[in-house]
Design goal:
Blueprint (H helix, E strand, L loop, with lengths): L1 E5 L6 E5 L36 H22 L5 H17 L5 H23 L3 H15 L1 H19 L17
Antiparallel strand pairs: 1-2
Helix pairs in contact: 1-2, 1-3, 2-3, 2-5, 3-4, 3-5
């Protein structure tokens, strides 16, 4: 569509052509293609389960870890297998369902949830004031390191396997063949 614009400085008539709209997500190019770019697509995984944001990852891992810690503290005197299984299950599920933009949250959240479970156990079982609680936290963190390392390795493997592109799978056309 063409329009007429009158310049205020010299009162000349100038023809103005309508330009394609600027895409708010990818402002580096002018787009006329109505199809969404890969960054605009918010397609859930194939199974239909919703994707998790950063807060969803934190809630999933944190709640499952606290449930496991609570069960372990009610049945035993410390954090054992149920705590470790709940932490691993929550971290693996969150790593599998996290959005691509929030992948870092899947790697950062399990150690924080582990520390939260250790603090809960120290508060429940700790005695002797601040020094006793501090020693209980330090002891639980040092003895639980293999569990935490295994969960973190599992999470990293899931995140990396979802990040690596499959051969022949393209999310966008090559740079030289993009439509404007």
């Amino acid at each position: 569509m063409t329009g007429i614009k009158v310049s205020s400085a010299c009162r000349n008539v100038v023809r103005v052509r309508r330009r394609p709209t600027v895409d708010p997500v990818t402002t580096h190019s002018l787009r006329t293609d109505p199809r969404p770019t890969p960054r605009e697509q918010t397609v859930p995984p194939a199974s239909g389960a919703p994707t998790l944001t950063t807060s969803g990852v934190a809630a999933t891992v944190g709640v499952l870890t606290l449930v496991g810690a609570g069960i372990d503290l009610m049945t035993t005197d410390g954090l054992h297998a149920i705590f470790a299984l709940c932490l691993a299950a929550g971290a693996a599920y969150a790593a599998w369902r996290v959005r691509r933009a929030d992948r870092l949250a899947a790697l950062v959240t399990p150690p924080l949830a582990f520390a939260l479970g250790v603090l809960l156990a120290a508060a429940v079982n700790g005695g002797g004031g601040m020094l006793g609680t501090g020693l209980a936290v330090f002891s639980s963190l040092s003895t639980g390191l293999p569990t935490l390392a295994g969960v973190e390795l599992l999470t990293a493997l899931i995140v990396v396997s979802r990040t690596v592109r499959r051969p022949g799978h393209r999310t966008s056309p090559p740079l030289g063949r993009q439509r404007l």
